[in-house]
Structures are given as C-alpha cells and as structure tokens.
Amino acid sequence: MAKPFRNLNRAKPQSYGVGLLVVFILVSLTYVTMSGTNKMRISLANSQLVQVVDVNYTSIKSYPSTGKEAAEKEKVVVVEKNSSAVPEEVFLPTGRTGDQGVPAVEKKPICDLSNRKSDVCEAAGDVRIVGKNTRMVYVAPPPDGNREGESWTIKPYARKWDVGSGGSVREVTLRLVNDYGDDGRCAVNYSIPALVFAIGGWSGINFFHDFGDVLVPLFQSAAPFSGEVQLLVANNKPGWVQKFRPYFDKLSRYPVIEFDEDDAVRCFPRVTLGLRCSSIEDFQMEPAKSPQGYSMVDFAEFTRSAFGLPRKRPTLLPEPLVGGEQSTAKARLMLIARAKTRRFTNVEEIVRMAEGAGFEVVVTEASDDIAKFSRVVNSCDVLMGVHGSALTNMVFLPRGGVVIQVVPWGKLDWIAGHYFRDPAKQMEVKYLEYSINEEETTLSEQYPREHAVFKDPMSVHHQGWDTFSRIFLKEQNVRLNVTRFRPFLDRARLFISQQHTQAQDLDLDQRGGG
Ligand SMILES: *[C@@H]1O[C@H](CO)[C@@H](O)[C@H](O)[C@H]1NC(C)=O
Ligand SMILES: *[C@@H]1O[C@H](CO)[C@@H](O)[C@H](O)[C@H]1NC(C)=O
Ligand SMILES: *[C@@H]1O[C@H](CO)[C@@H](O)[C@H](O)[C@H]1NC(C)=O
Ligand SMILES: *[C@@H]1O[C@H](CO)[C@@H](O)[C@H](O)[C@H]1NC(C)=O
Predict the structure, then answer these.
(1) What pLDDT was estimated at residue 323?
(2) Residues 6+ apart with CB under 8 A from 442
(3) Which of 59, 79, 180, 406 has a CB 3.0–4.6 Å from the CB of 184, allowing a cystine?
(4) Are 328 and 291 members of one domain?
(5) How many structural domains is the chain composed of?
(6) What distance in Å separates the CA atoms of residue 79 and residue 84, rounded to the nearest whole number?
(7) Looking at the domain assignment, is residue 333 inside a domain?
(8) What is the 101 CA–ligand 2 centroid distance (Å)?
(9) Is the CB of residue 25 below 6 angstroms from any atom belonging to ligand 3?
(10) Most confidently predicted of 121-130, 179-188, 325-334
(11) Quick one: which atom of ligand 2 is closest to the CA of 82?
C-alpha cells in the first residue's frame, strides 16, 4: 500500500508550492477514496472538469464558468458601508450600481488574521505611521474599553501561507496607544486614508507573482478609494513600481511613499495595513466576498483602462459557413515562444500551420516593457503558450479573446488549472487546454520510455519540489505535433466568431438597460 504523504516534508515549495501540495493531496485521495472522509474535496477536484469535447485525434477541454467553491470557509471582516461617501469617479464594474464605494471602518481597529492568503488591518481615528526603523502604525485606542497597548504584527504581503515567499518581507506592527512619545509629532497631516503594503516576496521574480501576490489584491484594496488614498510601499524593489506605473497612477493620485526609507511621522484619519484578497487562490477573486463585488472581469477592465488598451472585443470574424469555405478574415494569434525553459522547439512549423488555419501570428517573448507589450497582447485575439508566467498576459486580451495553454508532460493539471484555467474563466476569456503527449516532450530524448518520468510521473512529484521542477519545469521543451494541435486553433477561431455575436448581444442589452 502506497504511503503518499511520506515525502511531503521533503518538498520545498517555492512559487508552485501550493500547487504541489494539493497535487499530493489529490493523488493521495485516489488511495483513500474508500475512507469517505475526503468526499468533499474529491468532488471539488472533479468539478473543475466540466465539459470535455472530443475533436478528432484528441480532446479539447472546455470550461464554462461555474460558481467557484472555496475549499475553505474564510472569515471575512464585515465593514459598514457609507454609500453617501462614494465619489463620482469610483471605479465600478460596467453596468453595476448601488452596493459599492468605500466601506466605512468600524470604530475599533481590526486585524483580521483568518485569511489564508493575507492579513489585513483596518483602523480609523488618530493614525500615525512611521516607516523607517520602527515600522509602526500607531492608532489611538477606541474610547470604549481598555485596549491601550494591544498590537498586531503582520507581513503585509498576500502570500501568507508561503513561508519561502514571506521570508524576505519585513513585519509591520499596528499598536493601540494614546501616548505616541517621540513618534507623536505629525510631520505631515493627511485628510485621505493610508494603505500600507509590501512588494517583497516573489513579486519581481515573475509576472504571475506580480499579479497574484500584489496587483490583484492591491486593486481590491485601493480601487474603492477612487484615487484618494496614500500608498506606502514596504520592501520596495527598484523599478517595480515604475514597471507597473499605470496601475499606481490609476489607483492613487498621490506619489507612492517608500515606507522603509521614510522617517517622517505621517498622520492619517484612517489606515489599511495589508492587502485584501476575496479569494484564497492566486490571480482570482470571489466577487461575493468583496464589498464592491469586484471580479476578475473588473480587474481586466481596470487594467485595459489603466494601460489605455484600445480593444475591448476580439476581431470581427464572420461565423464559418457550415460545410463551406473558411472566411479569409484573419484573427491574430500571439505565440509565446519562451527562450529558456519549456520552449517550443518547432516555432516555424507552428507558425506555418497557424497561418494555414487563418491566423496572423505574432511570435514573442514576454517583455518587461509592459506598456508596450500589453498593447501587442491587446492587439491579438488568441494568446498561446506553454504553461508559464507569460500566460498572465491574458489580462491584456480583449474580453472574449482566447487563451490556449499548452500543458507540458508530467501530470501538471493542478498548476495548469489553478494558475491559468480558473483565472481565465473568471476573466471571461475563452480557455482551451492542450496536454502534450510523450512524443511531444523533449524529455523523451533524456529518459527512456520505461523511466518513471513516463511510466509514473506522480512518483516524480513525490520526490519533492526540486526534482519535480527540475525535470518537468526546467528540463522539458515542447515539440508540438501540429497535426494533433490544429483542431485547437480551429476551435479558437470558432470561439472568436461566436464571442463576437455574443458580445454584440451583450452591448445591445446594456444599451437597452441603461
Ligand atoms: C476532424 O474534424 C473536422 C472538423 O470538425 C472534420 O471535418 C474531419 O472529418 C475530422 N476528422 C476526423 C479524422 O475525424
Ligand atoms: C458618510 O459620508 C458622508 C459624506 O462624506 C458623511 O457626511 C457622513 O458623515 C458619513 N457617515 C458615516 C456614518 O460615516
Ligand atoms: C498636524 O496636525 C496637528 C494636530 O492638529 C498639529 O498639531 C500639527 O502642527 C500639524 N502638523 C503640520 C505639519 O501641519
Ligand atoms: C502527430 O499527431 C497525429 C495525430 O494524432 C499522429 O497521427 C502522428 O503520428 C503524430 N506525429 C508524430 C510525429 O508523432
């Protein structure tokens, strides 16, 4: 009898830590289904595969949006809303009115430490913030009760469960005090609230963490203030804020303050320490748990607006004629080639095939010049790439565009799903997933077919993060079988033409309703 958890402690989860962990759990479930105690988690795992459409040689998995159940129940801070305080310009999802705006803070300061992804404190009243050396947020205790001296120390970075990520993030303390001592003299008085958060951790390491750990939570935390908020950035990394400047400019009208270097005592009427996450999953949101009802569709819309991206909808393609010729109208496909790991070895062949399938192809590597690169992504209808952080660029696609994730060999379904399939669904881009076979991985040149890499990939997962990532994420390149892959491009084209008619309907509905 296998003991699936035996090697768990040897795993060193890094960026894909949780992915691996749950892979282990899911695998272990196959051994313990009879016990019945884990039924709920089994059904959760299964509910991800909603519909499987067979097309020719292989199968295309299609995942229509479904309500996303969270594996854990989170405790959410309930804050009162003051809808009369909503300024005109508050960023709101299109067509949404009413339940919105900046929530009022409860009188007593709250640090909610119950969320698996982030700790968040909210306080109103006499707030004094000192970044340099002390890393303190002082708040006058509420008049009722004797809470003087109470304090909370948190890392204001939204990847709490990941010890490796948080390691580089320094703690900030919120303390209730009446006598501020030397920290009492306000060098600057503000009438706007403060938002203190860190960008250390894995942000800057890759695009997925930039978004999952910081930008998506930052959007949820800062957007309700509609620009009237002072951002204080701890653990700043040179160039990072600059790189994502359009977000910062749209989220706050005031220049960012570097918390770690700031020795002024700054006084605010209100503070949020840490970033809110309505979902415990990275690069995802749960609108029902957000006071504003924010969704990933809103985040994508906010992103297109911040970066000034012109295309809200994909290219207008006529519906293909049944049994007839394909239209000559071209859709645009972005092919992310990747240069180092998990790269396509036959890019030219893929391009020729895609052109034959009616696409104009843009071959790229994700670039650090996001202002420029986001425009190129937005000019495309389909984003295609091997599993990797560059797929995060889906956030720049027009709504209703298509993402094709090519999943490498090695039973990578969990990370493929949680990191890109579910977020794509939430952003309402269409999603196609192509899993390569043994013929298409270059691992076949390094390992014989009898090797566990082919015969039992899960046993490689069980050897821990280092081995798993070395073999399946680093050593592997993809030699795409263009014959086998072709139906996916046909499907993508079909999605685009269908999306467009749906989008037109939607626009009409909105005009009719507003
Ligand atoms: C593959 O699919 C296409 C389009 O759906 C169809 O015309 C063709 O006959 C199919 N080929 C096979 C071998 O099933
Ligand atoms: C709500 O906001 C309005 C307008 O800013 C303000 O006058 C009012 O005092 C606020 N009410 C509460 C309960 O905070
Ligand atoms: C800030 O406000 C406090 C209290 O009103 C006042 O004593 C202090 O002088 C103000 N500081 C500045 C720089 O205006
Ligand atoms: C590519 O895929 C097709 C369809 O599955 C298959 O017939 C063909 O043998 C594959 N080619 C290679 C080189 O594996």
Answers:
(1) 55
(2) 345, 476, 477, 478, 479
(3) 180
(4) no
(5) 2
(6) 15
(7) yes
(8) 12
(9) no
(10) 121-130
(11) 1
170 and 235 Cβ atoms separated by less than 8 Å: yes
The verdict on 299 and 421 lying in the same domain is: no
Substitution site in 478, 484, 488 for ligand 4 pocket (most atoms within 8 Å of beta carbon) = 484
Residue-wise pLDDT tens digits, 434-457: 999 999 999 999 999 999 999 999
DSSP code, position 153: E
Q: Using the atom order of ligand 3, give the atom closest to the CA of residue 187.
A: 13
Do 122 and 147 fall into the same domain?
Answer: yes
Q: Given ligand 2 and candidates 81, 84, 88, 191, which is best to mutate, with the most ligand atoms within 8 Å of its CB?
A: 84
Between 201 and 471, the higher pLDDT residue:
471
- Residue 481 Cβ inside 6 Å of ligand 4? The answer reads yes
Instruction: Look at residues 306, 340, 375 and tell me which one is the last residue of a structural domain.
Output: 306
Residue 494 in tokens: 């079909």
Read off the pLDDT band of 311 (50, 70, 90). very high
Gap from CA of 392 to ligand 4 centroid (Å): 30
Domain of 436 in residue numbering reads as 322-505
Could you tell me which of 377, 406, 407 has the C-alpha nearest to residue 394?
377
- Among 306, 340, 368, residue at a domain's last position: 306
* In a shared domain, residues 296 and 345: no
Q: Tell whether 225 is covered by a domain.
A: yes
| pTM, two decimal places | 0.75
Question: pLDDT tens-digit profile of 423-438?
Answer: 999 999 999 999 999 9
Return the best residue to mutate from 481, 486, 488 for the ligand 4 pocket (most ligand atoms within 8 A of CB): 481
Q: Could you tell me the CATH number of the domain that includes residue 366?
A: 3.40.50
- In degrees to the nearest 10, what's the CA dihedral of 396, 399, 401, 404? 60
Atom of ligand 4 nearest to the CA of 439: 14
**Which is the closest atom of ligand 3 to the Cα of 267?**
1
Q: Average the pLDDT over 387-397 and give the result.
A: 96
Q: Is the CB of 55 under 6 A from ligand 4?
A: no
User: What would the two tokens of residue 367 be?
Assistant: 């670039």
Q: Does some domain include residue 21?
A: no
- In short, whether 483's Cβ falls inside 6 Å of ligand 4 is yes
Query: Predicted confidence band at 18 (pLDDT cuts at 50, 70, 90)?
Result: very low
pLDDT over 90 percentage in the chain: 61
Residues 419 and 464 occupy one common structural domain:
yes
Taking all residues of the chain, what is their mean pLDDT, rounded to a whole number?
78
Q: Which residues contact 375 (CB under 8 A, 6 or more apart)?
A: 307, 309, 396
| Ligand 3 neighbourhood includes 186 CB (under 6 angstroms) | yes
User: Does one domain contain both 370 and 450?
Assistant: yes
Per the domain annotation, does 76 fall within a domain?
Answer: no
Is the pLDDT assigned to residue 399 strictly greater than 80? yes
Amino acid at 453: V
The predicted pLDDT at position 282 comes to: 93
Read off φ and ψ for residue 220, nearest 5 degrees: -65, -35
Residues 261 and 334 in one domain: no
82 lines ligand 2 (CB under 6 A): yes
84 lines ligand 2 (CB under 6 A): yes
pLDDT at 325: 56
The answer to whether residues 230 and 154 belong to one domain is yes
How far is 94 from 350, CA to CA, in rounded Å?
A: 38
